[in-house]
Predict the 3D structure of the following.
Amino acid sequence: MASRKPNDFHARVRRRTAQIRRAIAAHDAVLSGTLQTRTKRCGQARCACQDDPDARHGPYHEWIRRRDGGQVNTKLDAQEAEIVAAAIESYREVQGLLARWEREVEAELLREERRKRSK
Ligand SMILES: [Zn+2]
């Protein structure tokens, strides 16, 4: 049996996932959850918002995510909402990249297994 150092596996995984890992490292802010943006009617009977959809107040931004088994809601201003929206998008991209990383490791592992069995 040809001797294969355990490190060979990791070296091959590092090579075949280099691009995925670079793509993950390119992200900075990642956040989970969802961002809700809506407008509201106030309680004043004579306010234009009661009848005119375009006169509704807002938009109001709310970031909703799971934390320690519960749901956390945080109101955000427009600038924060923009940051959170981009970070949620980044989070989803990183999740997709992690799934690809996992499939590459799995493929390399199974390739190795098949090689051992065919000997
Ligand atoms: Zn109003």
